[in-house]
Amino acid sequence: MELSFLAFLIAVGFLIKSLNILSYRLSVPYTLLCFFSLWIGLLFLPHSISPRMISLFGWFTLILALVFLVIEQVYYLLQWLGRSLSFKTGGSKKLPKELGEVLSALEQLASKRTGALIVIERKQPLDPFIRKAVTFDAEIKADVLISIFHTSSPLHDGALVISKGRIKAMRVILPLTEQLQIASGFGTRHRSALGMSEKTDAIILVSSEERGTMSIAFRGKLMQGVSREKLHELFHTALRGKDLSSE
Question: What distance in Å separates the CA atoms of residue 21 and residue 117, rounded to the nearest whole number?
Answer without folding.
Answer: 31
